[in-house]
C-alpha cells in the first residue's frame, strides 16, 4: 500500500512493531516448554545463554548445523497447515548433528514473513517447540523478521540453527567404517523436507492434483496430509543406541537432498563401497504416485527422494541386532538394508524399490 501525504511511520511502510511484540509474547511460553536445566535467562534478550552439561565431558566438542524446510512450505501455506513444518525444521537440523554422534543441546529459529501475523507466527513456533521437545533440545531463541516488499503478505520462510555436543575423539564418520559393517535403515513415513520442488511439479502442475482430494484413489487421507507428514526426529533413538552400545555405530547418514546414494556416500572411505538392497523396507505409496505421474525414472527418484529411509546407520555386524532392538524400543522402525564391502567409494543400489 502506497503511503499518503503527511507524516510517515514504520507501520505505513509495512512493519508493525506492535504485532512483533505480540508475537514475542506468544512465543515466550512456547519456548519455555522446551528448556533444559542448562538454559540461562529467557526469551527477549539479545542472546540466549546455555551452560554446557557439567561433568559429562572432559573435552567437549561443539557441533553446529543449519537448515530450512524448502518448498514444503508452499504446500503448508496453500492449505494453511503450518504447525508440522516446525517439527520438520527441527528434524533437519538435529538429525544432522546426530550423524556425528552429537547430542542436540539447543536450537534457534529464523522466521521471515511478508506481513507479521502473530497467530501465524505462533502456529509455526508451536511446531518448532514440539520438535524441540521430541529432540530433547531447548528452543533457546530466534528472530521473526517482517520483510514487506521482499515477501508478499501471507508468505514466509523458515530456517533453523542447532548446536550439539560430544566428547572429542568420539565422532562418528568415515574413519570408523570397516568392510563387513551392516547398513541399518531407519524408516521414514514420508518425504521429510526434500524433493518437494519435483513432487510439486509432478503432482500439482503436471498431474493437476488437488491438495484437498484423496492422495490417490481410495487413500484414507488427502494429498496435502500425505505431503505434510511431519519429519520423524531420529536423534533420540540414535543417541539411545550410541549410549547402550558404545562403539557399535560407526557412522550415520541423514537421508536428505541427494537421496540414499548421495548421503550415504558421505560416510564412506574411498576404498570401500556400500551395497543397498532396495525392496527390503516399506516405501510409502506417495513415491509410487510421483514416479508414475511424472513419470520420473528410477535413478532420478533415488537421487532426489529418501524412498522410505530417513537415516542409515553403519553398524558393526556383531552389534546389529542389539542396535535394532534399541531403535525399535525407541519407537523407530528399522532393519538391515545392506552392507559395506571393499570397493570404489560409491553406493550401489540393487533390485527395485517398487
TrEMBL record:
Top-level taxon of origin: Bacteria
Keyword tags: ATP-binding, Cytoplasm, Ligase, Nucleotide-binding, Purine biosynthesis
Enzyme Commission number, as recorded: 6.3.3.1
PurM-like C-terminal domain segment(s): 178-345
Cellular compartment(s): Cytoplasm
Reactions it catalyzes: 2-formamido-N(1)-(5-O-phospho-beta-D-ribosyl)acetamidine + ATP = 5-amino-1-(5-phospho-beta-D-ribosyl)imidazole + ADP + phosphate + H(+)
A GO molecular function held by the record: phosphoribosylformylglycinamidine cyclo-ligase activity
Domain PurM-like N-terminal: 62-165
Metabolic or biological pathway, per its Swiss-Prot or TrEMBL entry: Purine metabolism; IMP biosynthesis via de novo pathway; 5-amino-1-(5-phospho-D-ribosyl)imidazole from N(2)-formyl-N(1)-(5-phospho-D-ribosyl)glycinamide: step 2/2
InterPro entries listed in its UniProt record: PurM-like_C_dom (IPR010918), PurM-like_C_sf (IPR036676), PurM-like_N (IPR016188), PurM-like_N_sf (IPR036921), PurM_cligase (IPR004733)
HAMAP family reported for this sequence: AIRS
Entry similarity comment: Belongs to the AIR synthase family.
Name the record gives this protein: Phosphoribosylformylglycinamidine cyclo-ligase
Taxonomic placement: Bacteria, Bacillati, Actinomycetota, Acidimicrobiia, Acidimicrobiales
Encoding gene per record: purM
